[in-house]
Amino acid sequence: MENIIQYSSYDHAVMANNHQETDMSKEQVKGRVEEAKGKVKEAAGVLLDDKGMEIEGNVQKNVGKARAGLADLKEDIKDAINKDD
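Given the sequence above, the corresponding structure tokens read:
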């Protein structure tokens, strides 16, 4: 007996939605990577008691967060435009 998996239209909608959420642009990825690098640098500054490194990491983290946020906004605008078509 074969195992047959049946998906409802709801399951397809959820899968499609999940795919869209994980599909990031290069700019979104770059922003999130920059944010992560900044968090690491900030934590290293705290651990090493290096205030300059801590501040530099904090700035890098926030720049990455802003870059990712801007890329998210661009993607939302593209999605809204494509949705209307």
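The longest helix spans residues 51-84. Try to locate this feature in the token string yourself.
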